[in-house]
């Protein structure tokens, strides 16, 4: 502690405090509490709570932003009916589900790297910084760099592939069959840093004596990993799995900078579709119904998390 | 760990392999940096020249910083928005965190539950109403609007509340008996005790605001007001095929945060590990 509060000891103040603790203390505490939390509450109310209610309401409306308030038509569930017959939206959902595959990939890579960095190398600090670089880097700059690296005809990645024998390397971001996979590769590269740091923190909370006991029993490195490290990391893995899944539903920046949902809808993910409907097509009601579906997905995952947490995780 | 530990060659070997891997991982950054020093005609020469044959660094960076889209302006915008957002957010969050943890009032519990629940709402699900709201109250296309938008993130409240919970209630009670009001206790006991946590949150908030692309994209229109990520994209679309310039812009956009990160490295990494927070 750096500073002590000045502690006045005059009798008058003690008496005041004693009097306060009688009746008005509760009210005083409530007032103080409200004052402390009110800036945050007002912000959350105006910027989050009112908007989410508005989103849910607007998802039942047909409204083009330029028509003004009088242009709102309430159409019940029509937006949702239309949404689930909209082939591009169905494709978007499919892309989102495919995108989930990126999560286990970067989790496995991060866990392996975390174990190696935490236990088996010198220069631990350097490795943490190196793998964390993409996380702190401006995503637009990073996406632009990858776009150039992936350039189909003379980009560095394809030049290397041609040298080692692939005469027709994929066109990556420009190829409908590879574009989503390319975005996933970039996402894996960006996400390793965060996952690695959380895994290293998880590793450091595993009690040392477990390993010492295993050493006495003559366990090898693999057995120690499979029987101690991996199970003891399960709460961390579970946390990363849930945040990872939720974050796939929020992917936007990379797509906005590189492919804009193309080519032919192959990288359209939910937030991109929402953005495109709202700010390019100005279909506010329709976009809001996409937002409502997005919200529902995140809500379901969160509830599933609460349900599963107790059964699956080995504390 | 004993200081006089002998060099373990197996550990050395793993380190060497891992070093090679990390260089591979960092290649996009290395390529970006090298390319930003090159003359345009050398950018796609293959095999890749890892040391530029014709140095064009000064020309490239001069064009980025003082050309048609001068980066110094966007730097200033980014600094302004990030610093003010960080200050407001750290203040609002630490006040709320103290209120939710150290002031005993009935409403506090369920108010906190409401705030906690809003954390589940993806920011993208509320973009449209926020946009409409901003258009109607005149905050659209202004730095103030952008600042307000990310100043009330509930994340800081959670992080700091955890730390305030760790401050012994005895300190608070004894100060109260001595007649100090809550604001006084907050300022002279609470805040000094959680200062490292506030600093960590401030660094994280700064990084997130500096790198934020989505909000400026939707809430800014005027070129002059752009922050770095938007300027970077604008610059890319205007510079088209001038990849050496684009890479110089990318280096310029990444460098300041890299410096902030290297300086505040420990608290950033610890903060992220502690809060388990994702931008």
UniProtKB/TrEMBL annotation, chain A:
Per UniProt, which keywords does this protein have? Cell membrane, Membrane, Transmembrane, Transmembrane helix, Transport
One GO CC term, this protein: plasma membrane
Which PROSITE patterns does this one have? ABC_TM1 (PS50928)
GO biological process, alphabetically ordered? transmembrane transport
How does this protein sit in the membrane? Multi-pass membrane protein
Q: Which domain of life is it from?
A: Bacteria
| UniProt-listed Pfam families | BPD_transp_1 (PF00528)
Q: What is its main location?
A: membrane
Q: Where in the cell is it found?
A: Cell membrane
Q: Which residue numbers delimit the ABC transmembrane type-1 domain?
A: 92-305
Q: Which InterPro entries match?
A: ABC_transporter_permease (IPR051393), MetI-like (IPR000515), MetI-like_sf (IPR035906)
Q: Where are the transmembrane segments?
A: 34-61, 97-117, 129-149, 178-201, 230-249, 255-275, 287-308
Family label? Belongs to the binding-protein-dependent transport system permease family.
Task: Quote the protein name from its UniProt record.
Answer: Sugar ABC transporter permease
Instruction: Provide the species name.
Output: Cohnella zeiphila
TrEMBL record, chain B:
Domain (ABC transmembrane type-1): give its ranges: 75-264
Q: Which Gene3D superfamilies match?
A: MetI-like
Keywords for this protein: Cell membrane, Membrane, Transmembrane, Transmembrane helix, Transport
GO terms for cellular component: plasma membrane
Q: What is its main location?
A: membrane
Q: Report the family membership.
A: Belongs to the binding-protein-dependent transport system permease family.
The name this protein goes by in its record: Carbohydrate ABC transporter permease
Q: Which organism is it from?
A: Cohnella zeiphila
